[in-house]
């Protein structure tokens, strides 16, 4: 039992953590405009002056679990037009590929209780190129690459600071902070380090009036006065520093032209005092709801300086006594914890990548607060001027009230949870903190999250959008990982989540099976622009899209629910009936995929050996949309292997199964050899019979189609030179293989499924191949790559794909990491080469990172792939 594992037994150690968002502006929850223009209502330009309603933002920010009190760091290089209080990036309309952060920082370390945390921010010495980044990206088309901060030349000649920010906990409510500023340039450079404490503004809206206070105590100390906050003192080791105070209140004069009343010291007061050198923006009485120390230093060329701070519950005679010793202890405990986690035979580079993947997951926790009922109405003191005749989001989610610590995809680009993203986050999270992973999965099934009709909320831009139903898969994976690591099954967790997923499964059946034929649409399904047209679009004349992936996801969902029920039936016999229900449901879905109705050919195309979406026409005819994408690979995921010994423990299930095999041969013939035992007396349940499986894999493992050096592409490469064309209603829809950024504005144009490599899909491919191998063993081998003549069993194929995915991050024989896109600075410079960013997706041909740069959520599944074997 390591020290960190012991701390995990005490929930108080998580009362403080990195729960502050990297961006609160430009989010739906802060949008009170009449027409739902979230990107303009709050934006980067007014963020310094606007007091938020639902949460806070900052650089390396920490807070308590209710985010009553926040702490973060700001910096000023004495050349910028504003203090660097928040990371800068482009809004969705500004970027030629949607919203995009324009900063360089890396999450280096973190423990599950946040007893130790470390990140590094690369802050330019010269004036930050805000206008250049906005203007140049605004000029570029969607066919051109994004203009990144590195492209501006601001990092030429190493004219930047490496700012290392570390936290460690003395106790659960006693926190040390250390900032190490290293000047990487060849000349001395000034910097102002600005540690900032503030209270989230929850007093101005009309529900309560209690307001915490910060005020100067003595040199180097600020008192924290709040009846719900255990931390009472904020210390700076350098006592010869100035403390400045203002209020976390909107500057209505600056933003709206409202004349100020007497003694107003607004949120931007500290910024204005530093930049404009005036004293009327800060409170001369040295009190307020926002306060900073101003530490003005010159950093010598190639030199580093260290700055130390403490947040603690009591007056302390020497708050920095044993400061370095405590840090060293926590660092040693973090090493001990991860040594225990990384107990597989992996090399140092693999350990580094895996460790930073875990760090990113933990840094991307966020306090997420959004009460849609209140948001729609507005607050007593601030009515919302909504024009409900125009588009207002989430009106049907009036019940939703979120106020929790949640794993985010990316706290800048996606600072809101996404249901199917979160399911993937929880798998690697379960390796280091299974209780948190299980809690996250349960959270989304709570009645104040889940819709009364059973739908899970998608994400705040449209809670009603439909994501792939992977929650049950994740729950069972997390359950099994937790059981293996802790030596006992958490049946209460599994039972709780199963009961709620019954409601969600019923919602899918009632809402997304358009004609009651077990063929499921779903529209968006998280794949943005993968189709020839917007799959959320309402088609004309009663036409509708039968989605191969929607139906396959539901087949997978049915099998996941069957497997969970079978697990529970080992302890509670009543669940045998539920296992039977989902077994039969799965069979009906398999039948539907084969035959959509009289006169139709189903989703399988025998000529191509692939699954396709089908467009159902008003006259009853159907058109197969023969676009080869991962839509046709998703049927691989609907696979389950059941050990015969498990069946013997379930006599009712076995009896019902045998009845179906005998009396409904039209169903059982569609399922791959359920009645034939594979190696070790195992039974296979899969939509893909052996013949079809080999045909699909032949496509998937073809380097001219899906197989890349870095994983499985989201769309076949054949469309690079020969685009797919589909004409409907006089409009020609054309799809090219696009291996990186999107060339379409569909769904905002900030992500692309027409060629890149996406980790969630690849992760499921790897798992599914291992399941097939578990049944077939060496009796089934396929060419890898297709046409090579080199035959491999499916486990070898899975491991090969896994290695390709890992190679995106690992150094190759030339010392390059593919995600860096060939940038020599990132690959070889000693201050960059071992730092990892976990992008949203990756270039289909060269592995370059694309999209959200810190989406350590589902891309952190690489931490699981690095382990030699996945856990079943």
From TrEMBL:
GO terms for biological process: oligosaccharide metabolic process. InterPro entries: 6-hairpin_glycosidase_sf (IPR008928), 6hp_glycosidase-like_sf (IPR012341), Glycoside_hydrolase_63 (IPR004888), MGH1-like_GH (IPR054491). It comes from Chryseobacterium phosphatilyticum. Residues 414-638 form the Mannosylglycerate hydrolase MGH1-like glycoside hydrolase domain. This is Glucosidase. SUPFAM superfamilies: Six-hairpin glycosidases (SSF48208). GO terms for molecular function: Glc3Man9GlcNAc2 oligosaccharide glucosidase activity. Transmembrane segments: none annotated.
């Amino acid at each position: 039992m390591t020290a960190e594992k012991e701390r995990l037994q005490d929930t108080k150690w998580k009362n403080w953590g990195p729960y502050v968002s990297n961006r609160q502006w430009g989010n739906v929850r802060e949008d009170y405009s009449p027409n739902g223009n979230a990107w303009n209502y709050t934006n980067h330009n007014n963020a310094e002056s606007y007091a938020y309603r639902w949460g806070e933002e900052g650089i390396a920010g920490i807070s308590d679990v209710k985010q009553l009190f926040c702490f973060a760091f700001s910096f000023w290089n004495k050349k910028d037009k504003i203090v660097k209080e928040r990371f800068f990036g482009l809004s969705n309309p500004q970027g030629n590929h949607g919203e995009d952060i324009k900063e360089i920082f890396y999450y280096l370390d973190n423990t599950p209780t946040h007893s130790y945390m470390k990140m590094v921010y690369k802050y330019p010495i010269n004036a930050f190129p805000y206008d250049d980044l906005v203007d140049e990206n605004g000029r570029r088309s969607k066919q051109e690459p994004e203009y990144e901060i590195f492209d501006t030349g601001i990092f030429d000649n190493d004219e930047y600071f490496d700012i290392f920010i570390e936290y460690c906990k003395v106790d659960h409510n006693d926190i040390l902070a250390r900032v190490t500023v290293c000047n990487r340039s060849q000349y001395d450079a000034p910097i102002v380090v600005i540690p900032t404490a503030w209270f989230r503004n929850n007093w101005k809206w009309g529900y309560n009036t209690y307001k915490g206070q910060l005020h100067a105590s003595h040199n180097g100390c600020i008192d924290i006065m709040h009846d719900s906050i255990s931390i009472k003192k904020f210390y700076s080791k350098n006592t010869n520093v100035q403390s400045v105070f203002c209020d976390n209140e909107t500057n209505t004069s600056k933003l709206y032209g409202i004349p100020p009343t007497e003694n107003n010291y607004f949120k931007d007061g500290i910024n204005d005092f530093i930049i404009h050198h005036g004293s009327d923006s800060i409170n001369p009485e040295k009190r307020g709801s926002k306060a900073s120390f101003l530490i003005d230093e010159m950093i010598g060329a190639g030199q580093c300086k260290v700055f130390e701070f403490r947040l603690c519950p009591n007056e302390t005679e020497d708050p920095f006594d044993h400061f370095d010793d405590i840090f060293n202890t926590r660092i040693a405990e973090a090493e001990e914890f991860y040594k225990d986690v990384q107990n597989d035979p992996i090399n140092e580079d693999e350990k580094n990548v895996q460790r930073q993947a875990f760090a990113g997951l933990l840094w991307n926790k966020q306090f997420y607060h959004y009460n849609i009922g209140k948001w729609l109405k507005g607050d007593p003191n601030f009515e919302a001027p909504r024009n409900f005749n125009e588009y207002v989001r989430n009106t049907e989610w009036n019940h939703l009230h979120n106020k929790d610590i949640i794993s985010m995809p990316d706290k800048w680009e996606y600072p809101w949870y996404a249901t199917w993203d979160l399911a993937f986050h929880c798998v690697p999270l379960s390796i280091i903190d299974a209780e948190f992973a299980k809690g996250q999965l349960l959270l989304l099934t709570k009645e104040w999250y889940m819709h009364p009709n059973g739908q899970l909320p998608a994400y705040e831009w449209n809670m009603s959008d439909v994501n792939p139903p992977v929650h049950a898969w994740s729950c069972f994976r997390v359950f099994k990982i937790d059981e293996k690591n802790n030596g006992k099954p958490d049946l209460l967790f599994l039972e709780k989540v199963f009961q709620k997923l019954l409601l969600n499964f019923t919602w899918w059946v009632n809402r997304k099976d358009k004609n009651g034929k077990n063929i499921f649409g779903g529209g968006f399904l998280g794949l943005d622009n993968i189709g020839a047209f917007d799959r959320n679009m309402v088609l004309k004349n009663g036409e509708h899209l039968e989605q191969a992936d929607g139906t396959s996801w539901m087949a997978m969902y049915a099998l996941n629910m069957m497997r969970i029920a079978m697990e529970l039936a080992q302890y509670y016999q009543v669940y045998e009936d539920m296992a039977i229900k989902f077994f039969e449901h799965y069979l009906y879905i398999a039948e539907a995929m084969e035959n959509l109705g009289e006169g139709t050919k189903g989703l399988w195309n025998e000529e191509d050996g692939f699954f396709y979406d089908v467009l159902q026409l008003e006259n009853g005819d159907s058109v197969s949309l023969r676009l080869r994408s991962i839509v046709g690979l998703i049927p691989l995921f609907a696979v389950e292997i059941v050990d015969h010994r498990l069946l013997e423990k379930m006599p009712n299930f076995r009896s019902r199964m045998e009845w179906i095999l005998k009396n409904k041969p039209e169903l059982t013939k569609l399922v791959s050899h359920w009645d034939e035992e594979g190696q070790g007396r195992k039974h296979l349940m899969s939509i893909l019979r052996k013949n079809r499986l080999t045909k699909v894999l032949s496509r998937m493992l073809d380097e001219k189609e899906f197989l890349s050096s870095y994983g499985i592409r989201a769309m076949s490469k054949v469309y690079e030179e020969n685009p797919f064309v589909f004409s409907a209603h006089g409009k020609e829809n054309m799809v090219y293989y696009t291996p990186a950024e999107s060339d379409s504005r569909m769904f905002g144009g900030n992500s692309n499924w027409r060629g890149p490599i996406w980790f969630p899909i690849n992760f499921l491919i790897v798992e599914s191949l291992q399941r097939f191998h578990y049944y077939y063993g060496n009796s089934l081998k396929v060419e890898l790559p297709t046409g090579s003549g080199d035959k491999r069993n499916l486990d070898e194929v899975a491991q090969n794909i896994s290695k390709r995915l890992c190679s995106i991050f690992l150094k190759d024989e030339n010392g390059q990491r593919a995600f860096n896109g060939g940038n020599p600075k990132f690959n070889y410079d000693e201050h960059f080469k071992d730092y990892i960013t976990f992008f949203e997706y990756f270039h289909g041909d060269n592995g370059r990172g694309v999209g959200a740069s810190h989406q350590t959520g589902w891309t952190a599944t690489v931490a699981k792939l690095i382990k030699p074997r996945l856990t079943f």
